[in-house]
TrEMBL record:
This is glutamine--fructose-6-phosphate transaminase (isomerizing). GO terms for molecular function: carbohydrate derivative binding; glutamine-fructose-6-phosphate transaminase (isomerizing) activity. Keywords: Aminotransferase, Glutamine amidotransferase, Repeat, Transferase. The gene is LOC110705713. The chain holds residues 312 to 685 of 685 of the full protein. Its EC number is 2.6.1.16. It is an enzyme of class 2 (transferase).
Length: 374
């Protein structure tokens, strides 16, 4: 049942719309609302015996490829905030190419939907040789990464058939947010923050359902962009990952050139590209970076940029510069979970662009679901 398309035309479309349910499955049995003596917490059975070692690590490395790397990037800020441990990001092939230093005091977290990606497996072998504690986050029970790591967490998002990863991405972020909560479970100082995030996780599936109502709006936007050569996506903070992942979705399925960029780097090059023709998505939902993103919008507007701003519900006036930008309003959730919401309009945009441009949604040219060779 899970692997037929049901009422949908494509797997990617089905998997985008399945996200309220896949997120529920990912979180099932893992969130604990607390009884009389216990505060709200998370329980990740696959790593609970290793939490002490993880808390003592000098560094946590997130290692992955493609969308899995982007999901880890989205979770990095909350893991750093809650654990106080430095978190570094590694694209698996690059770590192996550099033979970057890895130590026994490191925790290396391998993120992979399939659990079989050759580059990620090679990086795992390398980290094992160097004595790091290796944690696997995969969607495939019994996969090579699940088998060869010391401990791990399954994403439980259900089978994903479309080559472009959608529901696995949002479930990976949810799992890594839970991982951050579990690691910080022994600290009193951020208990309020942790409990608010746990409440946010409970509410996430219904907020995702809400944001999926943008489907038609995103189809209309795709109509407007159908003949464009290129699309830029600017994000920062929690949503730097959203910019990278949104652009990856657009380029891999709709075959339109697209780049995700860190808004803080805008003045160091990308600004030269801005004119009245190039469409630019700016992610400016409410969080600690909001005012900086407002200023980015103003600077792009001053250079006549063609802007599409993704903002929190009710903020259209605060971001649209007198109505000169196209605005996409999304429900607001806990800041560290906002990437789960914000990627969905971009997934829908990539999907509709692909259909309108007449390309193969589920099997993009030259790409494979799982890259098992180097
Ligand atoms: C391929 C797929 C992507 C995926 C990446 C990493 O490139 O097309 O969708 O993100 O591999 O795969 P993994 O299974 O390790 O998450």
């Amino acid at each position: 049942e899970q692997i037929n398309k049901g009422k949908y035309e494509h797997y990617m479309q089905k998997e985008i719309h399945e996200q309220p349910e896949s997120l529920r499955t990912t979180m099932r049995g893992r969130l604990i609302r607390g009884g009389s003596c216990k505060a709200k917490s998370v329980l990740l059975g696959g790593i609970k015996d290793h939490l002490k070692t993880i808390r003592r690590s000098r560094r946590i490395l997130f290692i992955g490829c493609g969308t899995s790397y982007n999901a880890a990037l989205a979770a990095r800020p909350i893991l750093e905030e809650l654990s106080g441990i430095p978190v570094t990001m590694e694209i698996a092939s690059d770590l192996v190419d550099r033979q970057g230093p890895i130590y026994r005091e490191d925790t290396a977290v391998f993120v992979s939907q399939s659990g079989e990606t050759a580059d990620t497996l090679q990086a795992l072998e390398y980290a094992l040789e160097n004595g790091a504690l290796c944690v696997g986050i995969t969607n495939t029970v019994g996969s090579a990464i699940a088998r060869n790591t010391h401990c791990g967490v399954h994403i439980n998002a259900g089978a994903e058939i479309g080559v472009a990863s959608t529901k696995a991405y949002t479930s990976q972020i949810a799992v890594m947010a839970m991982l951050a909560l579990a690691i910080a479970d022994d600290t009193i100082s951020n208990q309020g923050r942790r409990e608010a995030i746990i409440e946010g996780l409970y509410e996430l599936p219904s907020r995702v359902k809400e944001v999926l109502q943008l489907d038609q709006e995103m189809e209309e936007l795709a109509q407007l962009l159908i003949h464009e050569q290129s699309l830029l996506v600017f994000g920062r903070g929690y949503n730097y990952a959203t910019a990278l992942e949104g652009a990856l979705k657009v380029k891999e399925v709709s075959l339109m050139h697209s780049e995700g960029m860190l808004a803080g780097e805008m003045k160091h090059g990308p600004l030269a590209l801005v004119d009245e023709n190039l469409p630019i998505v700016v992610i400016a939902t409410r969080d600690a970076c909001f005012s900086k993103q407002q200023s980015v919008i103003q600077q792009l507007h001053a250079r006549k940029g063609r802007l599409i701003v993704l903002c929190s519900k009710g903020d259209a006036a605060a971001v649209s510069l007198g109505g000169s930008c196209r605005v996409i309003e999304v429900p607001q959730v806990s800041d560290c979970l906002q990437p789960v919401i914000n990627i969905i309009p971009l997934q829908l945009l990539a999907y509709h662009l692909t259909v309108l441009r007449g390309f193969n949604v589920d099997q993009p040219r030259n790409l494979a679901k799982s890259v098992t060779t180097q």
